[in-house]
Design a protein that fits this description.
- The chain is α+β, with helices and mostly antiparallel strands.
- The protein contains two helices and twelve strands, in the order E-E-E-E-E-H-E-E-E-E-E-H-E-E.
- Bound molecules: zinc ion (ZN).
- Zinc ion binds next to strand 5.
Amino acid sequence: MQRRGAFRVTVSKDDHVFASAHFITFAGHRCEGLHGHNYRAGVTVEGALDEESWWVFDFVALKKIMRRLCDEIDHKVLLPLQNPRLQVVEEGESVKVAYEGTPRYVFPRRDCALLPVPNTTVEMLAELLTTRLRAEFESAGARGVTAIEMEVEESFGQSATCRVTI
Ligand SMILES: [Zn+2]
């Protein structure tokens, strides 16, 4: 029998966190200093019910995926690769960062997460996690998912959300 409701599941757990360093650039000629946040991610997934399990997506599997995605950027320096003001260059075991041509930082490569974003704002981190989760759904063969809404909080009561329909 066809169910009539629209369904969504939400996972927002205390271990879906990542403690990472970052800095962002602003309009004009301004660039933040390096600092860190205890980020926290929460996700809502909308979609059709699985006809055997009667769920949108398995909570256990979703929690595992979210934990893995957070682990990928946990305890790292988050560096944007698409920022026209920043030059991020890998050299052997190091990553060199320059702001508008002026050398600013050198980090060990293993401590960096080089990200395909223009700035490491919470908006862009939410988009990044959404893209990663979508890829995980595709490889898991989850065809019923119709939307992903990812929230990333950078401090208590301060967050951004990215919603993508599939
Ligand atoms: Zn910050």
